[in-house]
Amino acid sequence: MANTSDIRNGLCIDYNHDIYSIVEFQHVKPGKGNAFVRTKLKSLTTGRVIDNTFPAGHKIQEVRVERRKFQFLYNDDMGYHFMDTDTYEQTSLEEKMIDNPGLLKEGTIVDVLFHAAKEIPLTLEMPQYITLEITYTEPGLKGDTATNTLKPAKVETGAEVRVPLFINEGDKIKVDTRTGSYMERVKQ
Predict the structure, then answer these.
(1) Which tens digits make up the pLDDT trace of 66-80?
(2) pTM of the prediction?
(3) Residues 129-186, CATH architecture
(4) Which fold would CATH assign to domain 65-125?
(5) Distance between CA atoms of 99 and 110, rounded to whole angstroms?
(6) Are strands 181-186 and 150-155 parallel, antiparallel or unpaired?
(7) Is CATH 2.30.30.30 what the domain over 2-62 is classified as, yes or no?
């Protein structure tokens, strides 16, 4: 059993019969009244983010999770299939457990969080950035760079990403997996 002084980013807790990860927190000690901890919690089962305030010294139930490296193999109607890089065992995850599944490229190494006691997968964490190749986009017009406009482009995984006008087919781009947005063109 832990208390609010043990709260840190990434800590997993059992709260309201669900497992939450602490996304951010702030200890607040007002001039008048008792101290408290303001938190932003993300459910590892539904992905929903909630705000919650704990009074100082409040007991919280910590959940032990294990982070394991997996390699993405393929997806089909049964789900997304991954292979443990240490034991070579395969597991499949539902699409709802993955943020931006359209950006997953075969061979990508990801982290899967497992509930240590129950040995069930909770959520998948992709690398922050992934490099993808543009397979289709409309050509940009020469000299049309005065405005900061974006155009749709299809990447090798089938996902659509908004890119600047100077990006062409065959270019490799870096994409932020949390937002699904274009970051920069990768030099080849």
Answers:
(1) 989 999 999 999 899
(2) 0.75
(3) Beta Barrel (2.40)
(4) OB fold (Dihydrolipoamide Acetyltransferase, E2P) (2.40.50)
(5) 12
(6) unpaired
(7) yes
